[in-house]
Every structure is written in C-alpha cells, then in structure tokens.
Amino acid sequence: MIRNSDHDFLTRVKESEQDTFAQRAVAKAQDAQWIKRESARRDLGNWEDWRNLGEQIRQHVVRYLPDYLEEFSDNVEKNGGHVFFAQTDVEAQQFIKNLAIEKQVKQVVKSKSMVTSEIGLDKALLEIPGLDLLETDLAEFILQEDDWDEPTHLVFPALHKNRDQVREVFIKKLGYEGDNDPQHLARFARKVMRERFLKNEMSITGCNFAIADNGMINLDTNEGNADLCMAIPKIQVVCMGMERIVPSLKEAEVLDGMLARSAVGQKITTYCTFTSKQVDGETDGPEEFYVVIIDNGRSNALGTDFEPILQCIRCASCLNVCPIYRHIGGHGYGSIYPGPVGSILSPVLQGNYDDFSELPYACSLCSACTATCPVKIPLHKLLIKHREIEMDDKHMANIIDDTVMKVVGLGTGHSSLFRTALGMDHMALAPLARKNPDVAENLYSNGKHLEWMPFVFGGWTKVRDLPDPPAHSKNFRSWFAKHKKEQAKQGGLEAAVPQAPKNSNAFRPTGEPVLRADGYHQNGHPITEAHAHAKSQTKAPSRVGHHAASLAGENVPAGSHIDGDDIAKAAAQQEGTRNHD
Q1: 214 contact partners, CB below 8 Å, separation of at least 6
Q2: Which residue, 97, 225, 343, 464, is the most exposed by fewest CB within 10 angstroms?
Q3: Which pLDDT value is given to residue 202?
C-alpha cells in the first residue's frame, strides 16, 4: 500500500509540472514554513544542542527497540489494554477488520495517521458491509470526500487543493450552498463532522509517541479532532509504527517541542494529549483499548546503513526545504511518503527497488534536508547509499553497461586520452546539434543544443537538453592557455584578477558587503541553517544538559511522530490545509 500511483516516475513528474497551482502552493508553503520554523527554533535557545539531544534519544531507542517494545506492551496490558504485533500491512488490516466485525461496529471515526494510510486501512474497513468511516482531520476529510484523493504532504495533506476545488467537492458530495471563504468551508465541515462524532462507536488514531514506562500514548493535534474521536466511543484502536516509542514522559516532552517547531513553527501543538484505557473510577478514556504495533518492512532497516531512517519523527521539515519537492510536489513521488524521507523510506519498507528505483535520484544532493532535520538523520547520505546499492545491482545484471562505464572511466582517468576526447567531441556531436537560442545561447556562443544522442548516452538526453560542446579552439582549456600567455606578457596572471579588500566578506560590484557581521544577509535573512541560530548561542536550558548527561550513562531517551492540524484558519485556503501525524 506504500505506492499510491500506477503511473511511472516520468509520467508523474510531467503531471505534477502541469499543475501550476500545486507548484505555487508548495512554494508558498515552503517559504512561509521556513520563516515560522526558524523563528520557533530560535526561541527555544541553542537549537544545535537540542538537535544533538534529539539524535541521541532516537538512536538510543532504535538501538534498544525490542526492550522498549516489550516494556510498553507489558504496561498496556497491565492497564487493561490489548496489544497486537502486525508484521505486515495485511495482518494489521485483518486484525482491525475482525475487531470491527466482532464488536458489530457500524460507525468509525479516524484522526489523521500516516501509518493507517501506509497499510491502506480506510479502504479495507469500507469492505465491511454497512460500516461507515469518517476521517476527522479537515484536510483528510476533504481528500476523503474528493473520492479518496491522495495526500501530497506529511503535514499538509490537502496542500494541492485550492478553496474553489474544496467548495466544489462540498457542493457535490455534501450539499454545501455557501461561498469559497475558508472559514465558511471549515465551519460547514465542522458541523458535518460533529454530527458524526455523536454516533461514533469505534475510534482509530495514530500515535506520536508510545510511552514505554506507563503504557500511554501521546497524540499531538491542532484541531483537537483526535480528542473528539476518543471522547465518546467505548473502543479505541491505536495504530503505530514499531519505532514510535519513547522511554518516558521526559523524552516525550523534548521531542514534542522539537516536532511542533519543525513541523508547524509552533512551540507546542494546540492539543497535546496522553491517554490509555479508562481506569476504574474515571469517566474519561475508552473502555476497550487496543494498540496495533506495525512492522511492515521497518525491520529491513535494523542493523543496516538505513537504520537512521527509523529515527524519523515525521515532522516533514525535510520536505519544506527540498528543491525537488518544490517542483514536483508530493504526487510526483508515487508513495504515501513523499520528499527526501519518502525517497529513503519507501524502498526500505518495500524491501526492493521495483516501484521506487527512481526516487533516490529525485535529489540534488544539496543536503538542505540533512541540515534541517531535528534529529540529525543524514538524509542525503542515505540517498547516496540507495544509489550505490542500485548501481551495484545493475552492474552485476548488465555487463554491457558495466563495460561502457569502465571504458568511460579509462578515458577520463588518463589526461592524454581525455584531452584527445575533448578535441573530438565537437566534431562528433556537431551533426546532432540543433539551433535553439532559448535553451543554450547563454551557455555557448553557437547557441546549439543536443536533444538526442545514441546508445547509452540517450538516457541523459531523454530528460534534459545538452549544450553543443564548443570547437577545440574555443573551449575553456584553450581559452585559459591563451589567456595565461597574454597575462604573462603583461606582468603575470595575478595582476588581472580583482582582489577583494582584506578582512571583508564577498562584495557586490558597488562594494557593499553582502553579509552583516552577525552572519546574516543585509535583508535580515540567515544564510544557512547554522547562521539561522547565530544569535542564539546562549547557554542551553538546563534540561538539555540533564538529558545529555542521562544519555551518556545510557539512561532512556526517545522517539516520535506527529499529527498537527491548524486547519481552522488554513483549512481550505490556497496553500491547502495543515495536519500532521
């Protein structure tokens, strides 16, 4: 169920490129989230110390995952709950379907959960005759009413929908008669959902954190829909990936704050809920409490180079800085998990590259994702590792490609052969070059480019145009040799190179410094992730040091997941809606 499109990668990308609204919405969301995220992180204090702590917590949990899963399971059962370990998506589906049938449930409500989307739970439950299911996160509710459209973002699932599209869906499916004002749309959806909440017999939620030492679960939302899901029904089912666990509340406190800041630029989500089975003498909480702990390929990462991906807390900050995601959106990836994290996680969960062989290459290797990750997952390095594995497999399976690559390596590895090839490339490719000033005149003086090349080189020109190489007498090496001789006659090469004043940053042509002394642009924006916190070098809060000291002694730290929904004000606006699991 991880793959959510039947189209191949290039088809998906072309379709995404044609959706100009979605591209504008993604760009707008990325820019807005960058400002909010950096502001929230600076307020926290020394962000790098917090990142180090988050990394240590998550690494520790993954290292001792079996122990924490056993502790959590034991405590859930001590509280009167039930735990089911599902190795596959089918096992998880079947357990929940059987439970609904056994309890004769007809009304089910869900809060947003990426793992339930991963296992295809919604459509599986709708196979039960007479069962009615409602997604209660506003963004997911919109997608459900739009014939189960696929989400495009981990936190903002309906980012690709504008207010007019949302209005049309509500008119067609729900009889809406109002305008396209986001608040009116959200108010109407609220009314529809509140009526359904009152009929609820079973709630299904995700899990941001499972607290090992007390058997509780932690849910973070901005809409409060998860709390409403749990308020009325007697039965609650919690679905969680097996890595969604923290040792205790103190680790959950650390990661809750980091998640909210990284995902939606808030200090904490509006609702931060901890729950378990109803205790004797209390009125709150479900009478029956079931936790479904899902593997579904996660164990493929354990003990491998990809183990760090299990540290992921689904904050989606990597999506919000990714230039590839900015241009192709979530649907371009063809996976329930888009962006850099999805490009790594999807083939890991599936256990092969059959459906996702292109995703590791949907990356510019700019490493912005790694720099922004709150738990310091080396995302770009994991993408490179995927490429290495794929290439090794391909070379073993394709002797011809392997031979061609060896020949190319031989030619580029010897200077004399390389210079000879450079002298011949223009003559060899000139017959294939086409005139197109719009494409190449700014690159080479002849303004020609290559749209097609034969043999294995065609793989490159299928997806990009190449400038026609210049004649040998006009290439860079020839120009530089000639330039060097001319400058030697005039007193040396250094005399011709402009020298920046000492003790200065890079200068504009006017001499105005690009950077301020504090590492910021003149317009006030930080230059890099590191500069973003240049003014936050205050002493880290005492609890950071406390947790770091605990980790040094291998005391328990933790992991997480997210679920934020700020849709009351953004619900159906052009950039879509906000949510998070």
Answers
A1: 75, 248, 249, 276
A2: 464
A3: 96
The whole-number pLDDT of residue 407 equals 81
Going by the DSSP 8-state scheme, the letter that residue 512 receives in this structure is: -
- CA-to-CA distance for 164 and 170, rounded, in angstroms? 10
Strand partners, 202: 108, 235
Tell me the three state secondary structure of residue 91: helix
188, 273, 97, 148 alpha-carbon torsion, rounded to 10° = 40
Q: How many CB atoms lie within 10 A of CB 211?
A: 25
Q: How many residues does the chain have?
A: 581
pLDDT at position 446 is: 54
Q: Which residues pair with 435 in a beta bridge?
A: 448
- Edge-to-edge order in the sheet of strand 202-205: 82-86, 288-294, 235-241, 202-205, 107-110, 132-135
Distance of CA 49 to the CA centre of its chain: 23
Which single residue is written with the structure tokens 């888009």? 338
Residues contacting residue 182 through CB under 8 Å, at least 6 positions apart: 163, 569, 570, 571, 572, 573
The answer to whether 373 touches 379, Cβ cutoff 8 Å, is: yes
H/E stretch holding 203: strand 202-205
Distance linking the first and last C-alpha atoms of the chain: 17
Residue 555, amino acid: N
Would you list the domain boundaries of the chain? Answer: 414-480
pLDDT profile of the chain (581 residues), mean per 10: 91 92 92 92 90 97 97 96 97 98 96 95 96 96 95 94 96 96 95 90 96 96 90 94 96 95 91 87 84 97 97 96 95 96 97 95 95 97 95 69 76 78 65 58 55 68 68 73 82 51 41 41 42 38 43 39 34 38 45
Residues 6+ apart with CB under 8 A from 61: 68, 243, 245, 246, 247, 556, 557, 558, 559
Q: What pLDDT, on a 0 to 100 scale, did the predictor assign at position 472?
A: 64
> How many CB atoms sit inside 10 A of residue 414's CB?
12
- Find out whether 532 and 38 touch, Cβ atoms under 8 Å: yes
The pLDDT value recorded for residue 420 is 75
Side chain identity, residue 180: N
**Which pLDDT value is given to residue 155?**
94
Tokens representing 310 are 């299990």
